[in-house]
Amino acid sequence: MLEIKNLHVKLQEEDKQILKGVDLTVEAGKVHAIMGPNGSGKSTLSYVLSGRDGYEVTDGSATLMGEDILDMEVEDRAAAGLFLAFQYPVEIPGVGNMTFLRTAVNAQRKARGEDEMSAAEFLKVIREKAKSLQIDAEMLKRPVNVGFSGGEKKRNEILQMAMLEPKMCILDETDSGLDVDAMKLVSEGVNALRNEGRSFLVITHYQRLLDHIKPDVVHIMANGRIIKTGGPELALEVEHNGYADLMAEEA
Amino acid sequence: MSLPKVKQDATDARLSALTLPAGGWADPARKDALSRVQAMGLPNARDEYWKYTRPDTLVSAEVQDAPAIEAHEAPIFGERDRLQVVFVDGVFDAEASDDLAMEGVTIERLADAPDIHWAKDVYGVLETRGQTPVHRPLAALNTAFATDGLLIHVTGKAPKPIHINYVHKGAQSDAILHHVVKVESDCQLTILENGPAAARFNKVIEADIADTGTLHHVRAQGRDHDRRAVTHIFARLGSESTFKTFTLTVNGVLTRNEAVVEFTGDDAKAHIAGACLGDGSFHHDDTVFVTHDAVNCESRQVFKKVLRNGAVGVFQGKILVKPDAQKTDGYQISQSLLLDEDSQFLAKPELEIYADDVACSHGSTSGAIDEDSLFYLRARGVPRGLAEDMMTVAFIAEAVQEIDDESLQDELNERVTAWLARRRT
Ligand SMILES: Nc1ncnc2c1ncn2[C@@H]1O[C@H](COP(=O)(O)OP(=O)(O)OP(=O)(O)O)[C@@H](O)[C@H]1O
Ligand SMILES: [Mg+2]
Known about the structure:
The complex is a heterodimer.
Chain A: E1 2-11, E2 17-26, E3 31-35, H1 42-50, E4 55-64, E5 67-68, H2 74-79, E6 82-85, E7 92-96, H3 97-111, H4 119-132, H5 137-141, E8 143-144, H6 150-164, E9 168-172, H7 180-193, E10 199-203, H8 207-212, E11 217-222, E12 225-230, H9 233-241, H10 244-250
Parallel strand pairs in A: 3-10, 3-11, 6-9, 9-10
Antiparallel strand pairs in A: 1-2, 1-4, 4-5, 7-8, 11-12
Chain B: H1 5-16, H2 27-40, H3 56-59, E1 83-88, E2 91-92, E3 101-102, E4 105-109, H4 125-129, H5 137-145, E5 150-154, E6 162-167, E7 174-183, E8 188-194, E9 200-209, E10 214-221, E11 228-237, E12 242-250, E13 254-263, E14 269-279, E15 283-292, E16 298-308, E17 312-321, E18 329-338, E19 344-353, E20 359-367, H6 371-379, H7 384-400, H8 406-424
Parallel strand pairs in B: 1-6, 5-7, 6-8, 7-9, 8-10, 9-11, 10-12, 11-13, 12-14, 13-15, 14-16, 15-17, 16-18, 17-19, 18-20
Antiparallel strand pairs in B: 1-2, 3-4, 4-5
Pfam families (chain B): SUFBD_core, SufBD_N
Domain SUF system FeS cluster assembly SufBD N-terminal (chain B): 29-156
Domain SUF system FeS cluster assembly SufBD core (chain B): 170-395
């Protein structure tokens, strides 16, 4: 599904190398988790994959279902099936949540040469999905993320994911800011989307999320590289011992 | 006091190219206005009030060529239940206009109103009041030389809006129209205006709103790239009256819209708003002057400008609060969205307050499209151009929302979206 090889990334504006050779392969239908200390480059990896400005790939490659994505426009990557649930979802005053999502769904469909979704059908589907995430109709009418609480923003990200039905979902700290119940809701939302054609890359600091969304593989990222890869037990090890030992091993 | 020679010559040149329409009740007002023009002189680039907008092509005896262009879409407001009045290059078109009759409203034309007329208490009167403390000579010129216009007396709650549709045909047409609106107590009217009007258009509306009267005004100025216009709206508000005006401007090489609002009765409300989208040689100027001379009145000015390819937007907005105008609530915001570095927004917000118990605020900002928002929209699959358009529509939404009627909001937003989409392809 997603294949990242020897990815080196620096900041465009300054001479600062952030990713220093990331190798990572996520197979179709699998859930991979990335953990790692603050500032290790996890969000940067997610931004570079989705095409945000400000980064320069100096070496390496990233392909989605065999297609090189690093040269693609942001919107084309989305249409190709990549989705990023933002660590900090953006508030966009004046743009209605519904209008935004319907435009996005139909733009992606159009880009893929599929039929657009009618207004009626869209309404029916979004109501259903919003309900299961406990997002009320009033929230859907509001401008994108404006006045949403931290947890509401994260739930809104998952709603977008559910509507867009991407192939490769990257979740950047979707658990942060969620209360216990919301974490369960969001996890159920994610689990409902799991199938053999869809993969997940879940960035998190806490083992707790991984109790709900059971990963197949866990990676530890430090200082711009994946320093260790293992099974779910690796997350437990981090939970108990922190990163110090792992990083010492690496050095 | 004599005028500087350059100004005197320019004024003489313009006046000698015009003839005073003769006869009828408006005669004294016209002659009075003419002497005001002669005393003030027509504006030039040296005038402080015209610092950001060159008035020469609005003043000159000759009109700059402005060919009418093919419309891309049916005229706005065309699908509504309304009473339509059509002017072609400033000339009333009886064929295309509806019967000037509606319940609760009397509509006549300046060009053929009977000899003694109620409008003489308003015609040129509000314009004259609006000449202090700042001169507006092009409005006085209009009062003197207007060839036609509507005299609208509102004596009930109008069941539908009056829609004035200004059609532009001649490449050199020079139109001067003057409307008078008198809204009686408890009465209510909505006026819609649209169309490029003429190669050069000078228009005045004087609106006298009695206690508890309501006037809504929504206009869309648009289409022709080379047209020029100077418009004034003078509004006088009685107690507990409401006046709301909104203008959407797209295209036009030069537009100056002045709104001069005076509160004379307590507890009244005036909202003056506008949005414009400019591309290339577009120059748009909103000049607003609100005078609070009564207690507990609320005024809001909300102006948004989207500029690209070197377009220029100007905002001059003033709130004057007289000594006895306690409990005034005055608000003013002007913002621009600059889509490139060649475009320019020039703002001059002013507050002048002589009462002590007032709440007035103003702000002005200028900025580019927010990159984080753009990335967010694109990351969900919305193509860049469309995402920029969505953000542009969102930017002006705050001004469009000043219109009470949601169906009008929607119609204007659709026009803006269509205009943006045409530019994109
Ligand atoms: N645009 C930028 N300008 C300057 N520094 C940046 C920029 N983007 C990332 N960095 C730096 O790159 C490093 C990696 O940041 P990144 O946000 O990817 O970390 P992270 O692993 O997601 O951290 P966290 O767990 O705190 O979210 C940090 O040192 C950060 O300060
Ligand atoms: Mg991060």
